[in-house]
Write a structure and sequence with these properties.
Elements: H1 5-16, H2 18-26, H3 31-35, H4 39-46, H5 49-58, H6 62-71, E1 75-78, E2 97-101, H7 104-111, E3 121-125, H8 132-147, E4 151-154, H9 160-170, E5 175-178, H10 192-201, E6 203-206, H11 218-229, E7 232-235, H12 244-253, E8 257-260, H13 271-278, E9 282-283, H14 287-294, H15 310-320, H16 326-329, H17 336-348, E10 352-354, E11 360-362
Helix pairs in contact: 8-9, 8-14, 9-10, 11-12, 15-17
């Protein structure tokens, strides 16, 4: 664990003043502006002189803070350490510490360093009350990107976020969840199993210390981390007043690419995403569009993939269309053997990847 004393104190301060930060949000103060204050300015802005004096006397020793992190089975890395993701330095209100369920150096490996170097990471966000189509799209994006070696970053919320994480895990890749509570607190509780899988394959991170419950101010705060970690932020489905639009706004402010999946013009769920497209966001239909925009830029062209026979092309198209298991492809038992042979050949050619549950995912070809 490599977080310094001063940064651990800052994290403790945020947790201790969480109720005051919630009141500031309720008073329509911009949380990002409050989080950009120094420790002294933050206490002065949120506390009376008497409260500030009591707070100064209540601060635990750094060793006690470290023990709390260790006891929770977490790691902590601060902005002064090489394991801290350099992309977060673009934030004026960058978190002092990231607490991680998993190894902090694993986080840096997943999201890369500078935008032009190392592995790419893409943020996928959207509404909690997602349509069936949006859930399928988010899952497909996660699968395709993970199969191509791109890390998927999201917030593990119900709906689009969770679907993107699940797709990334199915695609055999790693994914990063950024929470508004302590990283050891699965939120929502219904996603406890997903939290465990993400921590095992990638990382669950937060700027909040272990055990902290979620509060409303924490969600726009965590959105800035999601936006900063991704080379692109994709909004799959979002209403006009969706928190996902905050993530897109932060991404745009940081000079990151903003993208959206188009939706029906009559759907309230798609109004926010469609507005982003109207204002110039990149249109995304599938993982290939993302790879063309993020990975393909500046990457030397390789040889074109070999031509597929018509039977193999048919199977590939069927898998891309959602019939992604042997059972789905073969309603008649007699068809199982040739379908399995085709799936195996496509896997050997690198056109399909095997995912959890006997599913197959199409590997996007970048050239």
């Amino acid at each position: 664990m490599s977080a310094c004393d001063a940064c651990l104190h800052r994290a403790w301060l945020l947790a201790t003043l969480s109720g005051s930060l919630e009141a500031a949000r309720g008073a329509r103060r911009r949380i990002r502006e409050v989080l950009a204050l120094s420790d002294e300015e933050l206490v002065a802005a949120l506390c009376t002189p008497q409260e500030a004096l009591a707070l100064a006397g209540a601060a635990p020793a750094p060793s006690a803070l470290r023990a709390t992190v260790t006891d929770a089975g977490l790691r902590a890395v601060c902005r002064h350490d090489v394991a801290y993701p350099s992309r977060l330095a673009d934030l004026r209100d960058a978190p002092a510490v990231l607490f991680a369920a998993g190894r902090p150096d694993r986080l840096t490996q997943l999201v890369g360093g500078d935008l032009e170097d190392g592995p790419r990471a893409v943020a996928i966000v959207g509404t909690r009350r997602a349509s069936a189509d949006a859930l399928q799209i988010a899952r497909g994006l996660g699968r395709g990107l993970a199969a191509a070696g791109v890390c998927v970053v999201s917030g593990m919320a119900l709906g689009v976020d969770a679907a993107a994480h699940e797709g990334a895990l199915e695609g055999g890749g790693a994914t990063v969840a950024v929470l508004a509570c302590g990283p050891d607190v699965p939120y929502p509780r219904s996603k406890t199993a997903l939290h465990r899988r993400i921590a095992a394959a990638g990382c669950v991170v937060s700027e909040m210390p272990p055990g902290c419950p979620p509060m409303r101010w924490g969600f726009p705060a965590r959105n800035r981390i999601i936006a900063a970690l991704g080379a692109m932020t994709i909004v799959v489905e979002a209403a006009e007043r969706s928190g996902s639009l905050i993530t897109a706004e932060v991404a745009a402010d940081l000079g990151r690419e903003v993208a959206a999946v188009p939706g029906a013009v009559t759907s309230w769920r798609a109004a926010g995403a469609n507005a982003l497209l109207r204002d110039g966001a990149t249109l995304i239909r599938d993982a290939r569009d993302v790879l063309d925009a993020v990975v393909g830029r500046g990457v030397a062209a390789g040889p074109p993939p070999p031509e597929l026979s018509r039977p193999l092309q048919t199977v590939l198209e069927e898998v891309a269309g959602g019939r992604d298991t042997l059972a789905a492809l073969t309603p008649r038992p007699a068809d199982a053997a040739p379908a399995l042979a085709a799936l195996t050949e496509l896997e050997l050619l690198g056109r399909l990847a095997r995912a959890a549950g006997g599913r197959y995912v199409v590997v996007p070809v970048v050239h």
